[in-house]
Amino acid sequence: MVNQNNKNRIVFFISDRTGITAEALGGSLLSQFEGLNFTKIHLSFIDTLDKAHGAVKKVNSASLEAGEPALVFSTQINSEFRVMISKSNCVFFDFFETFISKMERSLDLKSSHTAGKSHSMNHNNNYSNRMSSINFALGSDDGLGSKTYENADLILIGVSRSGKTPSCLFMALQYGINAANYPLIEQDLENTKLPESLQQYKHKLFGLTINPIRLQKIRDERRSNSNYASLKQCQNEVKRAEDLYHSNNIPFIDTTQISIEEISAKIINKLSLR
Amino acid sequence: MVNQNNKNRIVFFISDRTGITAEALGGSLLSQFEGLNFTKIHLSFIDTLDKAHGAVKKVNSASLEAGEPALVFSTQINSEFRVMISKSNCVFFDFFETFISKMERSLDLKSSHTAGKSHSMNHNNNYSNRMSSINFALGSDDGLGSKTYENADLILIGVSRSGKTPSCLFMALQYGINAANYPLIEQDLENTKLPESLQQYKHKLFGLTINPIRLQKIRDERRSNSNYASLKQCQNEVKRAEDLYHSNNIPFIDTTQISIEEISAKIINKLSLR
Fold first, then answer.
1. Using CA atoms, how far apart are residues B206 and A206, in angstroms rounded to an integer?
2. Are B248 and B196 within 8 A, CB to CB?
3. Taking the CB of the first residue and of the last residue of chain A, which one, N or C, has fewer CB atoms within 10 A?
4. Cβ contacts (< 8 Å) between B112 and chain A: which residues?
5. From 1.10.10, 1.10.3470, 3.40.50, 3.30.70, which CATH number describes the A127-270 domain?
6. ipTM of the complex
7. CATH no., domain A4-107
8. Closest CA to A159 of A202, A210, A198
């Protein structure tokens, strides 16, 4: 079904504000179409008549040059600018208006039609949590120890470079979850006993594991040809970490093939953290 | 227009995968309705018949208990499960199917209807960039200096606690941008000359500023009653930092009222980093 003349398409993400929502849904929809290349153009903060005119011009000239209409994914809230842009030479996907009338009917309430609420500070009651969770994750990464674990919503454990820090940061940024981390070092892996400082927080623990070959590659990028990065060392550490998880009934997840978004969502799901 | 019986509504975000996209658009739409409280329930990884049945049950019983149908925001891609859930006792907002047919027509291509592409590792060509940018931001935060600036896409400068680190981390996580940071300390602020290590990277610099009263509050949470957290010190540092930006024609932004999403999007916009 592929139209051979149609291998590359121009896509615009247009928003009154950051454009993060337009990009999330638009990107999700585009990922359903394999074999096409998309040239993505981001127009954020389209919040004046001048900028709206500029956006229309850009869409028209991109469509003209490509010989076919660009796709426009829009979360534009301002009606005047939205209508202007929708009338440009494009296929217009309206992520806002498409749903807002149905919501108004269902909620029996008019929407405020005010731009920029979802990713702003004031209308995101989770915002200060998220900021303090980032500081928490950064502090935990410096190894502040048991006081940190006390205040943690969860504690990620795993060998060096198994994905703990980026996962903690993502959970902080996206969900405002206080995720601490504890790196399993060699002396922790001598037997399958839980390290002492973790014992009273067992219910908060979640383990990460990773394919040793992948781990070897990651470590080698950091410390090339070291014992730390040898395959044997990686295999050994991973096996012992998994033994430790099994022996102590600690839930764990293999991070080799999955993104930090998926790791985080799965952990939150399993620990029922939301 | 507020329906007085209608102050609290149950909302579900349902997805085959992480649910991040459903939450982004759903949250954005909900933020348009002031004066209502929403009880939000997240059902992610609904990827088996059992889990789909479970989701239907949860929606039905929540709607029954509330006495009115829950709102369901769905990015469910599997058709069978999507149809099941849409037929439960709810108002169903279909973020996937609503747009996918129009996209298929416009792209002259069938969608793959495969779940979980947008936030996965393999279909996110930006993923390894994002991971390496997180390490970059963390490394830069430890003050690795000039080698870091060489490889940076941009360098955020500002006084302590003006928002540099969280903004750098967000730009890394969301966009895969290598954002370094340089904290302006007192000796940098003695005059309006650019610190020596930054001079050759002037084109990469972006300044942050903040209301001194807000800064004082943030610093006081960290080091209560210190000179560092005194209003006078905060006023002095902020004024000198702004003088430095003005003298050297460095673009800058006031972070007092805006979120790290907005800070990041505005900076990327201004420096044309995408």
1. 38
2. no
3. N
4. 32-34
5. 3.40.50
6. 0.89
7. 3.40.50
8. A210
